[in-house]
Each structure stands twice: as structure tokens, then as C-alpha cells.
Write a structure and sequence with these properties.
single chain, 387 residues, six-stranded mixed sheet, two-stranded antiparallel ribbon, 10 strands, 30% helix
């Protein structure tokens, strides 16, 4: 008499066969893999250097080119497309091939399905308190939130997005709250929707360079300086093929053809420098606080932003009466919010502050609050502190 029933033996054989297939698959070249090393081997390498490189990177090579690691994600993508099912990858595809970021609750935020009222109110309170503190110094605050692509490229959203119809978004709530606080705002969604497509890069979370310039110009008008606008033709070069965007770089999907008008700014400002007043930096090496000198006299401008504005907006003050323009990240962490250092802001003593944190990160999370900015609620219990 056997210890296992026939059905259990069959299940056991099936499981053993499955594990065996998975093991053997690691020895079968993937038909959709490129068969290349992730980092090309320099031609200058000697034979011994090449062997040493391959020995140290053999694991990555096998990961890239064996085990059906390229085929399975594509089969999954095609199957979900046939079923008309929203994808659960970090991004999803729109009607015309536009890629949209799918994490950090971005789709629900843009559609209005997610409205974190308390977090938005905290952001509004923070900006209002900043303006109250800085007003006696003559500083003006303008808020311009770079929208999610889903909030602008609505024509390209996938069909299942049509079922999402909510009356109010976090962006709407923030604009209404800031207006009640007396803070100047710019609805960049309306600015960009009024422009021609494409407004965002097809394979990237960011807007394209033309949208960046149009948004900058709208902020200058709102700040009371319409003469500070720049002509897009003067700062953008002719279209060239765009590199793979950040939504494709970590995938095995093929590149999508698109072009981009690169910035071609004839800098009026001196090269970027560190400013002694801006001593605190974002944790990411690419987001250091920087200042750009324009002239011996003129207004001092400070941009609190992120990757949507860093490296471009500080250089666009070509027609402005400014002495120095500085840029700092609006958080200590790339994915954080509302925890920049307000002591740096006061030390820099700007005449104009432009707050431009992207839509998916602008609500103030948890107990985030700028260092050095007074809290308007004195009896609040900080997060993770027992009452």
C-alpha cells in the first residue's frame, strides 16, 4: 500500500516538474533577450581584463539573457492588453502609446478618486504661514504645481480612465485653499491643456521642454512680471530624437519614437554655485541647492521645486531684473514633501519665492514640516510621540 494517493502523486510530480522546468530555464537563452552585456565591454580591454569583467558580471548577464526574463513580462503585457485590464506595473500605456506613471497613487490623485484633505490642508497652511512670516520682509510667494501627466494629457488616457469621474481633486482643493490664504497661484493644468500636444514626454514622467517654458512664462505673469517671460524659440533648439525616458529605462519594452526640443539657452547667468545661505541639501546628489548670479543689482528669486524645474527654470530669467536666482528642493528626500529647511529660505532673503513641487508629492505627509517655520497649532502631538 502506497503512502500517497494517486492524485497526490500526480500533484507532486507536477510540482516537481514545474520546479525542474524553472531550474532548466536558467540554462535556456531567452529568445527575446539582446544577448548583450548590460555595460558594453570597452574595446581597449585586454583578453585578461575581458575575462575578469565577464567573471565578475556573469550573474547579471544570466539574469538579463536567460530564464525567459525578457519574454514573460512581454507575454504578461500582451495578455493584459487582450483582456483590457489595467496593468499593475509602475506605469501603464495610454491610447496613443503615451506612458503614465502608476505608483504613488498618481492615477487616483489626478482623477479625484483620492483626496487626502488633511494632507492638502497641511500644505495650504504651510504656504500661508510662510507668507505671513515673509510678508514683513517684502517677499512675495507664488505657487505653481507641475501637474501629473494624467492631469494634462487627458486625450491620451486609457479607456478605463473614462469610468473615473470625481468632482474635486487635490489640485483643486489646494488652489481653493491657497486663494483663501491670499496666496498667488497658477493652475498649470489649464496652461498646458491650452497648448498643443505633446506636453509631456511619451516615455517619461516629466513634461517636455516646451511645457517647461510655457509654465515658467505663466508664473512670471502671475508674479507681476509679464516682461520677464521668454520666447520659446529663443531658448529651445530644433527637435531631435529623445533618449529613452525614465519609464522605459528599467524595462525591456522597445523604445518609442519621439522627438524633443532641447534647451538651447544662451546663459546670461554665471555658472551655478553653492550659496553660503543654502546649507541644507536634498539627500540625492543631483538635487543640491544652487544659486545663479545674473547682475550686481536686482531682485533675488528662490525656486522651491524638484526635477521638473531644477536646471532649467533658474536659467530662464534672461529678460528679468534679477541679481541672483537660487533653486532648492522642496524636501529632504526625493519622494518626500514639506520638510525643507525654512531657515535657509530666510537666510537667502528672497524678494520672490516660487513653489513648484510636482503634483504627486505636494501634499504634506505625516508630520513633515519645514525646519524653522513656526507651527500654527501649538498643541498638536508630533507623530510617534506618546501623549
Amino acid at each position: 500500500m502506497t503512502l500517497l494517493s494517486r492524485s497526490r502523486r500526480h500533484v507532486g510530480m507536477l510540482v516537481a516538474g514545474l520546479f525542474g522546468f524553472l531550474l532548466v530555464s536558467n540554462l535556456i537563452p531567452d529568445p527575446l533577450a539582446s544577448g548583450q552585456w548590460r555595460v558594453p565591454i570597452p574595446e581597449s580591454f585586454t583578453c585578461s581584463q575581458t575575462l575578469n569583467y565577464k567573471f565578475r558580471n556573469i550573474g547579471i548577464y544570466l539574469q538579463d539573457n536567460f530564464g525567459f526574463r525578457a519574454t514573460l513580462p512581454i507575454l504578461r503585457r500582451d495578455l493584459r492588453e487582450v483582456l483590457g485590464s489595467p496593468d499593475s506595473r509602475p506605469f501603464y500605456t495610454g491610447r496613443d502609446g503615451q506612458l503614465f506613471w502608476g505608483r504613488e497613487q498618481t492615477p487616483a490623485q489626478s482623477a479625484g478618486a483620492l483626496v487626502r484633505t488633511a494632507n492638502v490642508e497641511r500644505f495650504v497652511t504651510m504656504v500661508g504661514e510662510m507668507q505671513r512670516v515673509l510678508a514683513p520682509r517684502g517677499t512675495r510667494v507664488v505657487v505653481a504645481i507641475p501637474p501629473n501627466a494624467q492631469s494634462v494629457e487627458v486625450e491620451a488616457l486609457p479607456n478605463w480612465y473614462d469610468a473615473l469621474n470625481y468632482p474635486t481633486t487635490e489640485y483643486d482643493l489646494a488652489l481653493a485653499g491657497l486663494k483663501a490664504e491670499g496666496v498667488t497661484t497658477v493652475d498649470l493644468r489649464a496652461v498646458l491643456k491650452a497648448s498643443a500636444r505633446p506636453r509631456y514626454l511619451m516615455t517619461d514622467t516629466h513634461w517636455n521642454s516646451r511645457s517647461s517654458v510655457l509654465s515658467f512664462n505663466a508664473v512670471m505673469v502671475a508674479a507681476g512680471h509679464p516682461d520677464w517671460q521668454v520666447d520659446p524659440a529663443a531658448v529651445l533648439g530644433p527637435p531631435i530624437p529623445a533618449a529613452r525616458g525614465d519609464l522605459l529605462r528599467t524595462t525591456r519594452l522597445p523604445s518609442k519614437p519621439e522627438s524633443e526640443e532641447p534647451f538651447a539657452i544662451k546663459d546670461r547667468a554665471a555658472p551655478a554655485r553653492f550659496d553660503p545661505a543654502l546649507v541644507h541639501h536634498n539627500e540625492h546628489a543631483a538635487f543640491k541647492s544652487l544659486a545663479y548670479d545674473y547682475a550686481p543689482t536686482g531682485q533675488r528669486v528662490l525656486i522651491l521645486g524638484d526635477s521638473f524645474t531644477g536646471g532649467s527654470w533658474p536659467r530662464l530669467f534672461l529678460n528679468a531684473d534679477v541679481s541672483v536666482v537660487a533653486w532648492i528642493h522642496e524636501s529632504r528626500r526625493v519622494t518626500g514633501s514639506c520638510d525643507f529647511n525654512f531657515d535657509d529660505v530666510k537666510a537667502f532673503a528672497p524678494d520672490l519665492i516660487i513653489m513648484a513641487r510636482t503634483e504627486r508629492f505636494f501634499p504634506c505627509y505625516g508630520d513633515d514640516w519645514p525646519v524653522g517655520l513656526p507651527r500654527p497649532w501649538f498643541h498638536a502631538v508630533p507623530k510617534n510621540v506618546a501623549p
